[in-house]
């Protein structure tokens, strides 16, 4: 059997899937290995299929990440230049966060900054209401008994079962429930570092991490991070070999703000590095369940043989932002994290833990995830299209592998702090790039969200931010 | 009008009230000033009344605290000797807490250690169920919106309104909601101290405070504390004048474990001291609403003119242990606490905050408090009676001003760590006194709780612990 007709057949199949929107822009195609198994063909046939689809402009290869359905929007990837701002003061990040959060609480603002959608349409609130009603009737002690760490065993069992899809073999007893992923990070940092220590973080990184590190008396080294493949491991290894890091915080799956996911080989190497150098890695993956691909990528924790990885996540981005339920699998730091949780804030509300556990047991979560992933893939393509249309020439943007966040890079002289204030004056909230760096980097970047319903107000706000960005870019 | 017939009339009235159990053992009589206003008589008449009641063995004066209905149990106050254990290691408190907590989670244990009752009979769970059901129907966004500090404004308004009865004039914006009083304490310590600082605490103190201080890199100085009048202010002033303290943590109203409440003049002096020396006071009062008297005593915060007092409390001991809702009024440290709460764990679950706010608005809390205070007064008298009956000669115990905790001092050579293990072997949990000191003090003390329903199993367990204590005392 010749491979020519076969690959042609596959090209036709995939073309149909893409053109009918069954697989959408931004979605990742199966890896070559997986596609071989799926179609029972050789790697060369799959490569030929993918190259042909690429030539036809339907898909694109992303370095170290795989093949993706191509976005219609013509936006090159950000260059991620690392110059710091000349007038950086250091205290800015916290002030800036307060300004952005203050704006978020205004009901009549168009919010292009939120990292999770508002409103009950998006979440299984009706299910929660029914479960909670029954639990309150049958188990009133859920509101009256003191909850102690590590938290609901039933919920921890569910989390451990789900972690299998991230390649992790965990038991309920390996986990501690926390007040969202934020407290999980805080506990992880306190369990692994002492004041004066230095923590390596991605650049850019989750903005709320920076004040947390400062509050804990920890210094920061920002490590270059690629818009599709994530943390630069050569740079990390250099720092490790120089013994300059006491811990690392990274978001290897669906990075915030870049949307990047490290390829499996990179994750494996990262796990090996932290094991070799015996430096704890805090793997922060609250957005991982929003990965666009059909299968969930393995966590770095999946390759962790000696317990140096502390895996932190939550259900705040996918199910119940209002429950404040996060969790941590702290590896060799388990007993330290349990003690710290006990001494810092005791347990979490058992009623909410049990509600979530019952929802997860009932098996509706995977279906729910498919719906919201599809929704975000769709919204993200529209958002990228709007940026390509309305933002000034020279604008670049990420191609997120999941989630609802887009990182936009304006021409290098534009200042998004000015853009933030100009947009705020028109009741529109965006997040300025400088919030994602302790060194005042990314002054020409901003983070946009596609959480907002795709209505006229949102589109008008996006167009207006693009226009304001154009005015800033023209000022040069 | 001569005062003789009048005081005699008052003596008869009070005798009836006491003998019919309308006012019960452990309850505090109105202060002389209040009684004067109540009965429209002179102070000398009231003093004569109280002295006569005292002579008849119906009430007793407690130093610096007032007159109380006398307990039937003949138990002298603890002597509070401060010798440290010879073999103290320092790591014991945390290990001991884990052992006690581990035992508490065993369903078939008789638990004489809990600081709040279990079971839904004690709390307004039915009301919570109804409120929560309606909130979930009408406001599903309570589970889906991200909650940010400082927490529900509606709840903060209720807390501020209730703080008036503690003599505090607070606005909703002066408050931050926390994950129980435990997180409030943690945030207060982080806002006021840096690692390496020294914190003054009462001796004995709330046991979970000790690992918290250790985790935060803070040193401890234990300050003598009186079983009825609380923190020894002369000792505190000595330390303040020597500039040895960076902050103070104290429980001036219904101390845990002593049950002491500082008299108003002492609280006023304490407020003045921390203001004069500009040293923050973390006023930790989760048990204050369980004060036995008819009127709520003022907080130290009531006398705080310059914001040096950080008032921390919760609803975990009175309404909903499972909600994990605490709060802090951080005074001049407000913005630091807000930022720390944001960076440490974000907000608390809004559904639970709003449920509690609606319950408090509806006005049922005062009635509920009256019921549980009366319950504890009753139970405490029975507990003290059982200790007097079953524990060895030479046993001493506190006369709590509120709450459900009794501090028992055995003859000085008895070791309550041994008692803890001996009781545990018979499935009974008590808290050994050494847990309340970083220096291994109070090895001959233990804390008992009257939370448990007053049934045969509880009485048998108490008698058995007394018997075991007697065996230890005899070993000498």
TrEMBL record, chains A, B:
Protein name, per record: Putative 8-amino-7-oxononanoate synthase
Species: Chromobacterium sphagni
Recorded GO MF terms: DNA binding; DNA-binding transcription factor activity; pyridoxal phosphate binding
The family this protein is said to belong to: In the C-terminal section; belongs to the class-I pyridoxal-phosphate-dependent aminotransferase family.
Residues covered by the HTH gntR-type domain: 4-72
Matches recorded under PROSITE patterns: HTH_GNTR (PS50949)
Keyword annotations from UniProtKB, A to Z: DNA-binding, Pyridoxal phosphate, Transcription, Transcription regulation
InterPro entries per the UniProt record, alphabetical: Aminotransferase_I/II_large, HTH_trans_reg/aminotransferase, PyrdxlP-dep_Trfase, PyrdxlP-dep_Trfase_major, PyrdxlP-dep_Trfase_small, Tscrpt_reg_HTH_GntR, WH-like_DNA-bd_sf, WH_DNA-bd_sf
